[in-house]
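Project outcomes to date are best conveyed with an example. Our students and postdoctoral researchers have been running inverse folding experiments weekly, and each run begins with a structure described purely in tokens. The record below, which covers 255 residues, was selected by the lab manager from last quarter's runs and is presented without edits.
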């Protein structure tokens, strides 16, 4: 005789149990809109952005997962962050901007933003994915964050997406450290900015045994005494020579 309190559930013909529905981690649409700073005119976009692939198309449901919006959000985020960097760092060369951009749109940064917003609480995932910790996985959080940016763009245009990204990423802009520029690149940029020919490098001597050579290199620019450098490889010697020449040209009063 069955338990009079618990209802009898029909068996699944394949596995012996009926499949459990996906875990709805929320119904938190109002909370999500508040965190994003945007009230959706089309809330199906918000639902789509918060639907993990594991919960899409199950049990006769036709809802899309966040993958298409993630694709769009990735491009929108890249554009907005590039614009923010151009505004925030007007003196940065292209290489430094690229370094900052890569750091700000990488998975780790996106996951950090998602954790701060609490996106994992809003995601709809299959029960198996929830049990595997899906809503806390950095890759899933990052993908969902991009999907939300894509949803903002489709629902409110570029301004809605920009408002969210600008406010959320602003504290992160100054945290990205730019590595010291390679001396050869810095010297070339200096020459290019003054209409000079690119620096010329010449090996003036090679010493030591074949398995441990030492190279001496001379770096030169028109109108300036050359800089010299030494190293166990030509590239290392060139960098040292470039650094010494750059110090000379920047300090001789002609800069």
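After processing, the design step wrote out the following sequence:
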């Amino acid at each position: 005789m069955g338990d009079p309190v618990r209802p009898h559930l029909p068996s699944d013909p394949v596995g012996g149990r009926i499949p459990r529905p996906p875990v709805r981690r929320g119904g938190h649409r109002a909370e999500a809109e508040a965190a994003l700073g945007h009230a959706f005119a089309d809330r199906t976009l918000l639902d789509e952005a918060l639907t993990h692939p594991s919960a899409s198309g199950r049990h006769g449901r036709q809802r899309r997962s966040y993958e298409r919006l993630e694709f769009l959000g990735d491009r929108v985020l890249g554009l907005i962050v590039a614009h923010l960097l151009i505004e925030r760092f007007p003196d940065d060369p292209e290489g430094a901007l690229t370094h900052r951009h890569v750091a700000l749109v990488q998975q780790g940064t996106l996951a950090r933003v998602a954790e701060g917003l609490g996106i994992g609480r809003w995601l709809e995932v299959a029960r198996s994915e929830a049990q595997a910790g899906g809503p806390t996985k950095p890759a899933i959080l990052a993908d969902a964050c991009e999907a939300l940016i894509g949803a903002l763009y489709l629902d409110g245009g570029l301004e809605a997406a920009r408002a969210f990204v600008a406010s959320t990423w602003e504290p992160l802009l100054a945290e990205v450290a730019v590595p010291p520029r390679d001396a050869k690149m810095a010297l070339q940029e200096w020459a290019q900015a003054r209409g000079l020919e690119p620096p010329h490098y010449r090996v003036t001597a090679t010493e030591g045994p074949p398995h441990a050579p030492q190279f001496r290199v001379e770096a030169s620019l028109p109108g300036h005494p050359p800089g010299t450098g030494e190293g166990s490889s030509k590239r290392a010697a060139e960098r040292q020579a470039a650094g010494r020449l750059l110090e000379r040209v920047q300090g001789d009063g002609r800069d």
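Residues 178 and 227 are 26 Å apart (CA to CA). DSSP finds ten helices and five strands in the chain. The training component of this project remains on track.
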